[in-house]
Design brief:
This protein has 13 helices and 18 strands. By secondary structure, the protein is α/β, with parallel strands linked by helices. The chain has 2 domains: 216 residues, TIM Barrel (Alpha-Beta Barrel), CATH 3.20.20; 97 residues, Beta Barrel (Lyase, Ornithine Decarboxylase, Chain A, domain 1), CATH 2.40.37. The protein has an 8-stranded parallel β-barrel, surrounded by 5 helices. The longest helix has 18 residues. The model has no long low-confidence stretch (mean pLDDT 95). The chain binds pyridoxal-5'-phosphate. The site of pyridoxal-5'-phosphate has 12 residues, from loops.
Amino acid sequence: MEGPTVTVDLAALRHNLGVLRARLQPGVRLLAALKADAYGHGASVLAPALERAGADAFGVATAAEALALRACGVTRPILLFTPLRQHLAELVDARVELTVADRSDLAAIEAAAPAAPARVHVKLDSGMGRLGGPPEEALALVTAVERSRHARLEALWTHLARADEPDVSLADGFTARQLDRFEAALAAVRAAGVEIRSAHAANSAACLWLPRAHYDMVRPGLALYGHHANPAAEALMPPGIPALRPVATLQAPVIFVKRAVRGSPVSYGATYRAPRDTVIATVQLGYADGYPRAAGNRAHALVHGQRVNVVGRVCMDQLMLDVGSLADSVTVGDAVTFLGPDGPSIADLAARLGTVSYELLTHLSAPRLAREYVGGEARERAA
Ligand SMILES: Cc1ncc(COP(=O)(O)O)c(C=O)c1O
């Protein structure tokens, strides 16, 4: 390997899609959340692969992300999760479906006067506290959309704040209350005679364990990439769900090896001192490659299948490992695994650093990281 590399396993991606699909009743559509460059995995490759594997729709967060999916040949529906004020006519032209969270979002669409009516998903805030109007006011907003000649109502939707905590959700009813509010809004709108073609709420966690939230479409992200938002919740999932397979592996090469006597300092601030005579390996991976600086003295990696510690501060371009336990077997050019199915898990690293797998995955978009795709079907390999 020439430098730090992310290997993306498309077979694992298809496996995870199958695991999620198996949780759904027939006819429920699956929208794959591909925002933030497919959580760092590379949307331009994953979107066509997921489309071929049967994903029904895609979700993104920015206009650029939506248009990039069309540019790489995606034909299925694309939903922009975020209400936007710019590029609206262009987005509608590209058949991107828009989120409307309040009247001003609708006004922006009307001002843009797209050539064809925008397909609109009306967003309700049932408890996330981020975007959307109160479910009690859904009818007014939906009616305004229905009356607009520049918009066509496609769906009502909401986002769950605590679906990844089945224990809390079940014990104090937080998620059930969100769904109660959402369903009351759906019922009120339908009672007023408005046809709601689609309703959606479920992220990965709800997709896996909460059938009530599936409605006619689900929106998983993290589970497609092989991870649970809350690994502790895995034990609370219904039995028999096959294990998800991590899609990304992060590896980097050793570029220098040296002996260090007991007490030798390592890296900026000399925060690590060799506790005994040892061997220190320097690896070409730093925080400019997306590996968090906070991992210094806290994380581990795998060399020759053996666990070794990341020692001293992570630098911009390199980090150091104490490989004394591997005798003299480590040499320049050896591949070190920092994340992946056969290495440290992203959930473990996230827990050590006080963050979440989502944040660490998005770091895989660092431009210096090389990306390799494996496990593609024949036509993907040929592409
Ligand atoms: C609106 C929306 N839907 C779905 C998802 C997918 O969530 P997850 O990655 O937990 O499955 C996200 C991601 O945070 C989101 O913002």
